Amino acid sequence: MTAVIERAALTDIADLRQLYYAVYGPHYPTALGTDPAEMSRLIRDPHTLWLVARCPHTGALAGSAAIHSEAGARIGRLEGLAVHPDQRGTGLAGRLTEALCSATLDAGTLDSVYATVRTVSAGPQRVVTRHGFRPLGILPNAVDLSSRESLALYARHSPGVLDRRVPVADVPAPLVPLLRTAGTSLGISYADTRPTAPVPLPAAPIAAPLEIIEAPAFVRRRFHAHFTDGGRWFYPLHTPNILLTPADGGFEVYAYLNRTGGYCALVAAHPDPAAAARWLEPVTRTLTRAGAGYVEALVPLEYHAALSAFTTQGFIAGAVYPAMRRDRGGFHDYVVMSRTAEHIDFRGVVVDPPLQPFLDSYVSAWASAHLPSPEVTP
Fold first, then answer.
1. 206 burial via Cβ count (<10 Å: 0-12, 13-18, 19+)
2. DSSP strand E in the chain: where?
3. DSSP-derived 3-state class of residue 351
4. Is the pTM of this model over 0.85?
5. How far apart are CA 350 and CA 367, in angstroms?
6. Are 140 and 344 spatial neighbours (Cβ–Cβ below 8 Å)?
7. How close are the terminal C-alpha atoms of the chain, in Å?
8. Rg (CA), the chain
């Protein structure tokens, strides 16, 4: 029997929570499938399209998925893709994915949609690949479910978007293998982007403790007071909920910390990124103590100095998102720089062939950054 796909309703919340529990167990780290208040907000949200697949005779939920965006943004996130174990193999995940993309990308309301896909099996990767998504990179140890899992980043663009990318003259040399891999995956070229040496980082500061302010409403108000111009920061669908600052208040780092999933995204720094660049090491250590086994930052590809700072502090470029942000008619590429405090074990990772070059690229970059260079003895 063919399931009926329609918009989620407030009356579905209890059944949705049961569906996500049946699929992911008690460790699902996203409020979309666990928090009734947040689920109610998203169902009402005009920037979220949440679809469910329903048995036409009983009304029971067989699947769920959503694309979430935000006001003023033309990028969406595919999330919460879940199919009841009894319905696996029926093509329902693909139907949900295509219905969402048709109503957003094909309708012209979004320029691209991305998804972070589990790597415990190849199935989720094949679902998104069959529906126009292409791999952009690997996010090692990105989330803590029942154990640490690596995720893959995929995206699908509207027609013509990739052709309007703003060229970048040069990048730190360690990023070049990733860019070449992405170019092959997406059919784009970075041939005119020159590899150059990373910019040296100024001397590290004297070790000093950092304070963490965990007052989400206060942090949001202060963040928006400092960053009234969205052009100074860009981290779609991540609202900071913590603030890190030294005792003298010399800078402020805004971040989103998810303790359930054990990950953190560095969103912005005030008065500017350079003020906090030398503090990346103590910032990362502080976040690790706070429960973040994985820390990432989203950096514009043209910000050579910022990319150099992250590279110098042990962050690895795991993914590149071409044409992620639209600005004055052109589209800008972004790089996901990440660092994990936990042992990376790729033995349990299952990758579909299109993703394999990104995994190889990451392993090579990690080895170059963390293993000693062989010395030749005369």
1. exposed
2. 4-7, 48-54, 61-68, 75-83, 112-118, 134-144, 148-157, 170-172, 194-196, 210-213, 242-246, 252-258, 263-270, 294-300, 316-327, 330-340
3. coil
4. yes
5. 20
6. yes
7. 73
8. 21
Contacts of 348 (CB under 8 A, 6+ apart): 120
- Which stretches within the chain are classed as H helix? 13-24, 36-44, 92-104, 123-130, 176-186, 216-226, 273-277, 280-289, 304-312, 356-370
For 301-351, what is each residue's pLDDT tens digit?
999 999 999 999 999 999 999 999 998 889 999 999 999 988 999 988 999
pLDDT for position 374: 59
Instruction: Tell the burial category of 290 from Cβ atoms under 10 Å away from its Cβ (0-12, 13-18, 19+).
Output: middle
Cis, peptide link before residue 26, omega less than 30° from 0: no
**Residue 205 CB contacts under 8 Å (≥ 6 apart), including other chains:** 278, 279, 282
* Residue (of 299, 279, 295, 298) closest to 287 by Cα position: 295
Query: CB–CB of 323/112 below 8 Å?
Result: yes
89 versus 378: the higher-pLDDT residue is 89
Task: Give the mean model confidence (pLDDT) for residues 55-67.
Answer: 92
CA angle, corner 347, sides to 342 and 348, nearest 5?
90
Which token pair is 266? 């560095």
pLDDT tens-place string over residues 207-265: 678 999 999 999 999 999 999 876 677 888 889 999 999 988 889 999 999 998 899 99
Per the DSSP assignment, residues forming a β-bridge with 330 are 327
The Cα 370–Cα 110 span in angstroms is 39
CA geometry: angle 179, 180, 183, nearest 5 deg: 85
